[in-house]
Design brief:
There is one protein chain. This protein has 94 residues and is α+β, with helices and mostly antiparallel strands. It has helices at residues 8-19, 78-88, and strands at 30-31, 40-45, 49-56, 61-69. Strands 1-2-3-4 form a 4-stranded antiparallel beta sheet. The longest helix has 12 residues, at 8-19. The two termini are 20 Å apart.
């Protein structure tokens, strides 16, 4: 995921945003709806890049499940890819 982003500045900014999820992850981003219910999404770089994550309260951990561009209608849209991963069983539901 993150390794596929070739621009180092973008990658570093996203890493910093992910590290920031350590503090109050449930107060950051927005809760997802429908098939991505249980996950949260936070803007990571400008308006396009998003970090999709979930919070496991029992283990007190934040699990980043996807990073990518939000481009509604595009087959590479981060939410579309996450839904495909859920349906295929490669991503565990929250």
């Amino acid at each position: 995921m993150l390794q596929e982003i070739t621009n180092r500045d973008i990658r570093d900014t996203i890493r910093t945003r992910i590290r920031g999820l350590v503090t109050d992850p449930e107060k950051q981003g927005k809760p997802m709806l429908r098939s991505l219910r249980g996950f949260r999404s936070v803007r990571a770089y400008q308006e396009r890049y998003r970090v999709l994550y979930r919070v496991d309260r029992d283990l007190v951990q934040v699990i980043v499940v996807a990073v990518g561009i939000r481009k509604e209608g595009d087959r590479r849209d981060i939410y579309t890819l996450a839904q495909k991963l859920l349906r295929s069983g490669l991503l565990d539901p929250p």
